[in-house]
Amino acid sequence: MQIMDVTWGRAARVWWSIFWRTFLITALLAVVFGFLTGFLIALAGLEEKNLLWSQVVGIACAVVGGIWAVKKVLEKEYRTYRLVLIPSTEAQMQQSLDN
Question: If we measure between CA atoms, which residue out of 17, 6, 9 comes closest to residue 71?
Answer without folding.
Answer: 17
